[in-house]
Amino acid sequence: MLFSLPKPTYLQENSEERTRIAFSRPEVACELASWHITIVKSLTEHLWFETPHRRDYLNITDTVEKLVRKSGVQEGLCLVNAMHITASVFINDAEDGLLQDYDDWLEYLAPHAPTSKYRHNRTGEDNADAHLKRQIMGREVVVAITKGKLDLGPWEQVFYGEFDGRRRKRVLVKIIGE
Fold first, then answer.
1. 135: pLDDT confidence band, cut at 50, 70 and 90?
2. How many domains does the chain have?
3. Predicted model pTM
């Protein structure tokens, strides 16, 4: 037996759907629809990328969906996060014009050049703009898994955004559920 519950001081049936149990410790009370044990499954995988350009946007939805199937999780959550401070994971439409709009907008907000305008680059780096772009686009996404599939809205896709490419970086995919 993995765990045991304290003996109830009383058991009162409220309805066919619900039972209220008050335990001997007053701070512990549970409303239960039914008693059952759920086996929680999990899967952790790392995706590796080395993009040929300084900035790239890769649709990784199919890869993440394959991992969901591999996990066997039917109901749960899928975390996808960039494990580097100059890369991002985000959700949006897989439309080439929109991806170019993102790239133009990010370059307008945090242009790469002149690199001398960023204090961070005084350390010998030239990627301060990439840190700012990542901050705008975000580190991670969490997607619900329903009936064994990513529960994305219409047109939604999962993307890896690279803002300081041409070197190897990873993305963590963590799936948990039943």
1. very high
2. 2
3. 0.79
Asked if residue 151 has pLDDT above 90, the reply is: yes
Same domain assignment for residues 73 and 14: no
Q: Domain of 111: which CATH number?
A: 2.60.120.460
Domain limits for position 29: 1-37
Residues 50, 24, single domain; the answer is no
DSSP secondary structure of 90-158: EEEE--HHHHHHHHHHHHHHS-S--GGG-SGGGGT-S-HHHHHHHHHH-SEEEEEEETTEE---TTEEE
Indicate if 171 and 93 belong to the same structural domain: yes
100 and 167 assigned to the same domain:
yes
Tokens 């307008």, residue located: 108
Is the pLDDT reported for residue 18 higher than 50? no
d(CA 150, CA 74): 10
pLDDT at 36: 67
Q: CA-CA distances (angstroms) from residue 146 to 12, 73, 150, 154?
A: 34, 9, 6, 15
8 Å CB contact between 135 and 117: no
Q: Are residues 116 and 166 in the same domain?
A: yes
Confidence (pLDDT) at 37: 78
Q: Which two tokens stand for residue 53?
A: 């350009």
